[in-house]
Write a structure and sequence with these properties.
- This protein is of the alpha+beta class.
- It is built from five helices and five strands.
- The chain has a single domain, classed as Histidine kinase-like ATPase, C-terminal domain (Heat Shock Protein 90).
- A five-stranded antiparallel beta sheet has the order 1-2-3-5-4, with helices on one face.
- A hairpin with a 3-residue loop joins strand 4 and strand 5.
- The longest helix has 21 residues.
- It is globular.
Length: about 140
Amino acid sequence: MTGAVITRTYGIEGGDFGRAGRVSTDIKDVLKSLGIAAPRIRRMAIAAYEAEMNVVMYAGRARVDLSITPEAIDLVVNDEGPGIPDIDLAMQPGYSTASDEMREMGFGYGLGLPNIKKNSDAFVLESEVGKGTRLHSSIRLDSNG
């Protein structure tokens, strides 16, 4: 990749299961077109998909900002959702507030946030109840990681 900064902005609507996965698929395609190494593409695709599904399942809408520099891939998701009352609890694998309907569709097993963190070189999750959540996932490109 050259020294250019590449950015993309996406919108996600909560409850739109029919379009779920389109943002993460586009992100994967952008990374492929730039010649990013496959392991890094896979990690960012997982983080983006899990973040996207959390918006679809729990928030009203979100703005997703993707930034790619020679140093890193950064994904920032700002949602207009209920917020997360206990981030430490939400980060525990298996913890979920998913409805029975979501589980019947195959979602809501409490692995989304832990998977995002596991696939990120840097991860920040901030939330305010009644206001929304901001998630930042970053994957380094300037190392062998």
